[in-house]
Design goal:
about 100 residues, mainly alpha, 3 helices
Length: about 100
Amino acid sequence: MLKLHGAAAFVALIAMGAMSAHHVRRGWAVARDRMSGALVISFLVALIASGYPLDYLVGDASRASISFAHWPIGVALAPVLAMHIVIGRQCITKKEAARSSAR
């Protein structure tokens, strides 16, 4: 199970890099959904900062304390990401409604 988790982490890192190149830059430029987007990025950075040491830097003595910090961040990421998606879709829906009423 831990190997699957590690593989998923690499996929998430690749996805984060891909999103940073277009989605994040565009969203920041048009000032849309910045707060929840910054929160998602903060959670991802915290996961990276706590996950990397778990795999590569710490021994068994400190693994438990770092793990105790890592897993709640990962659990909390799910609702934060869901909130970001919902807010983003609401922004798009409002934009489309404004566009259609202007016609």
